[in-house]
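ok so i was messing around last nite and threw this chain in just to see what happens. nothing serious, just curious
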Amino acid sequence: MTRRMHAVAAVTLLPAALAVVSYMLLDRPLSLFCRDLAPEIVQVFQWITELGVSTGYLLGLAALFIFFKFIRPRALAARRVLFVFAAIAVSGVAINLIKPLVGRLRPKLLFEAGLFGFDPFRIGYEYNSFPSGHATTAFALAASLAIFFPRWRLPLFGLAAVVGLSRIVVGAHYLSDVIGGAYAGIMTVFLLFLLCRRRGWLDFPGDSDMESACLKQD
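result:
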């Protein structure tokens, strides 16, 4: 197993362990706590949770790509916009394929019928809680932008975390769903990053420094 595969395995095991712990110990009490929050607090998070809807980002990024590709040509900017677009789109498709396979019951069923757990291959909104699509979008956006704007990585991931929290507060997801969505978004960006670098489709910040360091070692 290569060093890169070891790193991927390690990065996968940590969120998996956190999700399992959350499922066993935190999901139900945290969601029940949030259900009883003041309506004013929930309303604030209802506004915040809209930041996790992918449609606006995809449309905006598509418009930016057309602008940098055809109207005011800037090849690097166009490729970077396309990378962010792909991160959101690919991660969204991936989790929408996973949701019905997992069949995670949403908190709504816990609140209304005391049901908690999984019902694999069940189709319907109430049974596609894992992973959180909003969290996936937020973290895919944060991770892809952080590659190109590393100084903004902390606020980007901080905002993504708040979007993930909002899904719990509004009663749409459990904490483990958000952890799964965050992992899906970040891992999608990581795999796209490796693919684009290997194929030479896009230059990333720091690539020239890495090449110089390799030349010096040679």
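not much to say yet. The chain has one domain: 7-202.
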